[in-house]
Give the backbone structure.
Amino acid sequence: MTTVSEQQRRGRAPAPGAVSEDAARIEILGLTKRYLTPKGETFTAISDVTLSVEPGQFCAIVGPTGCGKSTTLAQVSGLERPSVGSVTVGGRMVDGITDGVSYMFQADALFPWKTVLANVVIGPVLLGTPKREATALAMDWLRRVGLAGFEDRYPHQLSGGMRKRVAMAAALINNPRILLMDEPFGALDVQTKAIMQNELLQLWEGLRPSVLFITHDLDEAVALADKVVIMTSSPGSVKDVFDIDLPRPRGDVQEIRHESRFLELQGQIWSSLKDEVTRAYKQSAGAAA
Amino acid sequence: MTALTHDDVDVRRQEIELKVAARRTVTRRRAWIWGGRILLAVIVIGGWQWFTAAGWVDKFFFGQPTEIWNALVHLFTDGTAFGTIWENLWITVQEALLGFLLGTLTGVVLGILLGSNRYLSEVVGPYIRIVNSIPRIVLGSIFIVAFGLGMGPKVLLAAVLVFFVVFFNAFQGVREVDQNLIANVRVLGASPLQVAAHVTIPSAMTWIIASLHTAFGFAIIGALVAEVLGAQHGIGLIISEAQGTFDPNTVFACMVIIAIITLGAEYLISLLEHSLLKWRPPSRSEAQSI
């Protein structure tokens, strides 16, 4: 049992070491994305974004509303194609869906018509894993996120935090080399959010995928990430990059908030972000007036 | 010790009393509802009977409840000029069922196809809206001229009426699919077919099944109207014959029979809905049991 799931967990990266680590490097170079509006005008969502995420690094992206954070993630996953520039994952240019990527959204993208187990099992099933193995693996993951015994429930029967755990299990079950998270805990209440952040850190430390984590919450970004990227208001580009040198494992997210180094970093980042947020607010207020 | 057990007994007695009181309230409310329902039926049917018996309303034109009952008995015991009522009923039900199946199948397939293909839907969309706005019931005349008095044109008319209801719902259902869900399975490596099987179709199912309730009513209407326009068997023919002989009671009797059939079908569709959509949270209207 355990050996099977152990192998499965490694799944995509059978040989740990230099090769598999390199496979998780994300390199974004001069990325610009323009959209065609229905009226036939072009809208530039992000312009000339350059940033890189080292293998196994946790990178948070912070920026004002509508600055193209989600657009950046969509280019990395391969769901969309860049207008200018390139995204390279593990040395290979992204063209079509990138292998070994998992997504987690703010709205829990669970299938309401599938049970908890079926929601988690879909990842390996889509990869072609035999049903029995996939089920065993999913059961193991549900146990890990503390949802053993809830296999047969439907999502609407769970609380918001439990749904997030299911989404987390579903995102991690394929042992992704890259985890894209788009404000995953945005809709949760403060207490549940803290619990989920701690659990995410624990699971991440076990698997070590590269993470791109979008958030509005500066505290969350500093507490979780190795690196915080600040984006400018629309059209978004990289304004500043901060390395977070808080030691790992970080321990309790709630407690780290009171450490002096945390507050220092948080203050630096906020002074950089503040201008952008004010500018974005003025833009949207101007558009509304 | 004794005081404690006394308290225990007291608490338990209070709980039991509370439960009994709650149950009594529910029973009383239910009794009131049923009382109101029966009263309403008595007022409407009794009033009808009374007004026609007293001669304020002419029963020659508007029928009379007791006469309708007699007509019903007559239909089931003596049969009609076109064979027993069972034969005729079976033909109408068959037409409606076949039309229902045909219309639902084409509606679901085309709805999902057009809903998931933006280009196709933008090309075909306006034409479907045009076809939807013409009075389709008139197509019955064309079908009867083209295909004769058999079952074919009835099934076709029922299918046409059903098609649009189901089609628009399936189309809308596909359009309302959560884009995050699609992105999620695509990132996990799903092929277009797998996206349809895991996301699009289950998601559209809510809309499609909701449309089936109205769709069966339309199937019956289609079959009946086509029979009235021209047929050799069926409830519609009995209705049009009764109209020709100034017999409103038989027309009403046929309406009663059809209403019972439709209610039965509705019940079966509800069962199907419950088993297919058991993942849904219980809706508020169900909880209030209206």
The domain at 19-100+177-288 of chain A is CATH 3.40.50.300 (Rossmann fold). The longest strand of chain A covers residues 42-53. The beta strands of chain A are 26-36, 42-53, 58-62, 84-89, 92-93, 101-104, 178-182, 210-215, 227-231, 238-243.
